[in-house]
Write a structure and sequence with these properties.
62 residues
């Protein structure tokens, strides 16, 4: 995993604990998250919202 700021690493760690316990829900639909990469993305998103040092999300190809 890439190196991020301490605050963002802590957010991802908390999110992964929720994911492992089966309590992590996705934002809009509220469905249970089943993918590890999706859980990490949610953690980074929460870190960005809280103002942690995280690079911007990668752009998707079309």
């Amino acid at each position: 995993m890439a190196k991020y700021g301490k605050k963002s690493q802590e957010k991802v760690k908390q999110t992964m604990h929720e994911y492992k316990r089966g309590k992590l829900k996705s934002g809009r639909s509220g469905k249970k998250v089943k993918n590890r990469k999706q859980a990490i993305a949610i953690g980074l998103s929460k870190a960005r919202k809280s103002g942690a040092k995280v690079p911007p999300p990668k752009k998707s190809r079309k």
